[in-house]
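Problem 12. The chain below contains 248 residues. Write out its predicted structure in token notation.
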Amino acid sequence: MPPKKILCLFDMDGTLTKPRQAIDPEFDEFIQTKIKPLCTLGLVGGSDFKKIAEQMNGEDVIFRFDYVFPENGLVQYKFGKEVGRQSIQKFMGEDKLQMFINYVLSYLSTVVLPVKRGNFVEFRAGMLNISPVGRSCSQEERESFEKYDKEFCIRQTMIEALRKKFPDIGLTYAIGGQISFDAFPKGWDKTYCLRHVQSEGFDEIHFFGDKTDEGGNDYEIYNDPRVIGHKVSDPDDTRKQLEKLFDL
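Solution.
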């Protein structure tokens, strides 16, 4: 009986790397030398390709992983080549997009936090990434905001306000990482990437992610019936679960 054709699909922040930090070279080597010979490797993240390359130690990530899906799979790399991309601008139209962004900026102008920095709305191919504290914050400020947000639910409160203001705009929201949340068209969560692999004949698709609770940006794909989900707490836990899966 031939061995199963398995795809291991990984979230990045909190799964392969610590949030917004580079992957540990030893862990990277473990994946490439121990795991890659046993399965097909895929990476799906909410970030754009530039950020993924930074955290995965170089643009050659598209060769080290068989599939790389920045922005939840709205951009697709297969075996080192870009094979497609979708655009939120094309999907929504400029008028609706600007109306939404203007309200976001207006709302954020009323939010008082211990610190505020710059880059509150980041436009990506498949989503808007919204950060109440601003993506220009330092690592220390990032960690402080995460603690503050856990106590005061800044991101979740803002999401509820957006849902109330725009009930029919066709967007959904997911909290990911430490300082931001994503707004994207319904169905454009991480399950979007599955349409690019479901016809490849895999016997099993395993997904590893840390934000798997409802509202987290791994929730939909973790619970998708096409996927065997693995909830992890950090890169060390990801390694332990891979060793168990492949009996290493």
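Discussion. The first strand starts at residue 6 and ends at 10. Students who got a different answer should revisit the alignment rule from Section 12.3.
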